[in-house]
Design goal:
Blueprint: H1 12-15, E1 21-24, H2 26-40, H3 42-45, H4 67-81, E2 93-96, E3 101-109, H5 126-137, E4 157-165, H6 170-209, E5 221-226, H7 238-249, H8 252-262, H9 268-278, H10 282-299, H11 310-330, H12 332-343, H13 356-375, H14 381-389, H15 400-406, E6 419-420, H16 424-430, E7 447-453, E8 456-464, H17 467-470, H18 475-478
């Protein structure tokens, strides 16, 4: 057999040498990182309202074996600690961090007979309401309530002081701290594996091979990669939602604190903390989306659910969450219904006992129903026609927040006939089963590639479906077809 000399081929380094220049859009890259940072920081966002484990006061609880002794001891202690002489003048809310106590004050008239707007009214049992009404009718001074002690000349008004002292379990607060560290690590891992690592690999492949196979060597091509929002697919990730669900269910005592801060309006800082803490209830809405997503996939009913826009979902929870508590104390019938939920477990002994689990479950159910009411509604015909007029490769075919972000790039606002890609959404429209998450709009994770030839703008803008969006495919359906969802 005749021998043949084999010429060695190029080494790996020369094959993978970059032939094309590629850069990232700085503005959208920074925005993408900020959105990721806001999601990663959300587990520790709770410490804006909560205290860190090593700074949490652990007051000694009073004797709970005898209710009468407990009432007398707690009353004497709180009257000595929080009075007109010890609290700041005019302050309606004070947090005593040394004793983990939240103090609310409200000036009332003796002619008032309605418990609306009273501090802590959502936790009043029947005995507390009866006590308040009898106190309003009592004209005696200097008794246990110390009426008339500080201003005996004015008997028409008095100051109601409500004190909520919490006795946390050290093991629980440290467990939540460690759980939040684990949640942060989980978020960082998912963001890297499902978005930023594929994005860097995509940039490397474009630098080596370009965006087409038939590029002429006599032309110089350069690219600008516009990153998207990597957080949208994680809103319906079962592991992420489960981590936040456990986190929030371990903190019902902080919901009570948030309500106290919310229902007073003079301390704006405390009010903002309450709204921000209640915004974490959005994960209950995401939990309902995950559950419905599983049900739709099992029953093959993906086509009956309209994708939920994460932007509008966040705004709805931000507004509706605090508004529910305000309505409860502002409308008498709502307050009566809430009180019934507090004592429905203790109908025979409802004077001195309340149970917040039922009322909290109803509140969680209302929050969880927000995205379902949106997704199960019939889509208006005019909206369907408008959606069909928008090209799938256009940045306008996106959620509200990402339309605003992408509109900051002038090149994306050009003629739509220059755009390519996005055909996978045509597949989603014709075959809803191809979507792994039919319940939420995840198009914000898509990237856009601006192509320039010989330092001039090209006639093409290519939409790149990144790894985060590829994760949103139903691979059980596409893999047997040998379909690649990377760039369509």
């Amino acid at each position: 057999m005749r021998s043949t000399k084999v010429t060695p081929g190029p080494c790996r380094a020369s094959v993978l040498h970059s032939h094309y220049s590629i850069k990232h859009h700085r503005g959208l890259a920074v925005t993408s990182l900020l959105l990721s940072a806001s999601l990663v920081a959300m587990p520790f966002q709770a410490y804006i309202s909560e205290t860190l484990p090593w700074a949490t006061a652990l007051p000694v609880a009073h004797d709970l074996s005898n209710l009468t002794v407990f009432n007398q001891t707690a009353l004497a202690t709180h009257q000595a600690l929080y009075s007109h002489s010890t609290l700041p003048d005019g302050a309606t809310y004070v947090f005593d961090i040394a004793r983990n106590a939240h103090v609310c004050r409200h000036v009332l008239s003796s002619s008032s007979r309605s418990p609306l707007s009273l501090p802590g009214v959502l936790f009043y049992g029947r005995a507390m309401v009866d006590l308040w009404q009898s106190f309003a009718n009592d004209s005696a001074s200097g008794t246990w309530h110390q009426r008339g002690t500080y201003n005996p000349l004015d008997s028409a008004e008095y100051t109601l002081t409500y004190v909520l002292t919490q006795y946390p379990y050290p093991a629980l607060i440290w467990f939540k701290f460690l759980w939040r560290i684990g949640s942060t690590v989980l978020l960082l891992t998912l963001l890297w594996r499902r978005y930023f690592s594929p994005l860097m690999g995509l940039a490397h492949d474009l630098a080596v091979r370009g965006h087409r196979n038939d590029l002429m060597p006599e032309h110089t091509w350069r690219y600008e990669l516009i990153a998207g929002d990597p957080t949208a697919p994680l809103l319906v990730d079962p592991f992420v939602v489960g981590a936040f669900f456990v986190d929030f269910t371990l903190s019902p005592h902080m919901v009570a604190v948030a309500m106290l801060r919310l229902l007073q309006v003079r301390d704006v800082g405390a009010l903002c903390k309450a709204v921000l803490y209640l915004f974490r209830m959005i994960w209950f809405a995401c939990f309902s989306l995950v559950a419905v997503n599983k049900l739709l996939k099992r029953c093959r009913l993906e086509h009956v659910f309209t994708e939920v826009d994460p932007t509008w979902l966040g705004l709805a929870v931000l507004v509706l969450g605090p508004s529910l508590w305000v309505i409860n104390v502002a409308v008498p019938c709502f307050l009566d219904a809430y009180r019934y939920l507090l004592v429905c477990f203790y109908m025979t002994n409802g004077l001195v006992q309340i149970e917040v689990a039922v009322a909290g479950a109803v509140y969680i159910l209302i929050i969880a129903m927000i995205p379902l009411c949106f997704g199960l509604r019939p889509t208006p015909f005019c909206r369907r026609r408008r959606a069909r007029r928008v090209r799938y490769s256009s940045f306008l075919y996106n959620s509200a927040k990402n339309r605003l972000l992408f509109s900051l790039v002038p090149a994306l606002r050009g003629e739509e006939n220059k755009n390519f890609g996005g055909s996978i959404y045509l597949l989603f429209r014709r075959c809803a089963r191809a979507k792994a998450f039919p319940v939420v709009n995840t198009r914000g994770a898509d990237c856009y590639l601006l192509c320039y030839c010989d330092n001039q703008s090209s006639d093409s803008i290519v939409e790149i479906v990144t790894g985060a969006s590829a994760y949103c495919f139903n691979h059980l359906l596409l893999c047997p077809l040998h379909a690649s969802p990377w760039c369509m």
